[in-house]
Amino acid sequence: MILIRHTTPAGAAGVCYGRLDLALAESFEAEAEAIAAALPPGPWRLFSSPATRCRRLAERLGPAVTIDERLSELDFGAWEGLRWDDIPPEQMEPWGKNFVTAPPPGGESFTELAARARAFAAEIVAQPDTVETVAVTHSGVIRALLTAARGMSLAEAFTLEVPFGSIHRI
């Protein structure tokens, strides 16, 4: 399976976003072209998170895209769209100490994200099709799947580099 993180979103610097549907940066076309050039030739089964920043890239890569909610980024709940600096420390501190199992207010924990991402991967692996799977998704989902593939704990997820437009094979 090939996992691709979406391209650079516009206006994301310093903002808490997961499910927030951000626009794409002006660099989208150039980033999408570089990603397409780096992929092996198709055909692929092509999946995408429902977020526009993922869907647009997936649609650029191929005509038949299956949207799968399990590829969505972490739900930051009440923090969505806030500047990280504006999140009250009394909320941020407990989450920062235990992001694996503690959800942001009204959101989901990293354990919950990992469970749905890993369910997606298990379903793909169980299919007898020999066609390569490409999933356009988010850093949280990619980290959750990479930790599982590498035998790492979820607490180690943020030691993994997952820049915008990066491609990861598991």
From TrEMBL:
<protein>
    <submittedName>
        <fullName>Alpha-ribazole phosphatase</fullName>
    </submittedName>
</protein>
<dbReference type="GO" id="GO:0016791">
    <property type="term" value="F:phosphatase activity"/>
</dbReference>
<dbReference type="InterPro" id="IPR029033">
    <property type="entry name" value="His_PPase_superfam"/>
</dbReference>
<dbReference type="GO" id="GO:0005737">
    <property type="term" value="C:cytoplasm"/>
</dbReference>
<dbReference type="InterPro" id="IPR013078">
    <property type="entry name" value="His_Pase_superF_clade-1"/>
</dbReference>
<dbReference type="InterPro" id="IPR050275">
    <property type="entry name" value="PGM_Phosphatase"/>
</dbReference>
<dbReference type="Pfam" id="PF00300">
    <property type="entry name" value="His_Phos_1"/>
</dbReference>
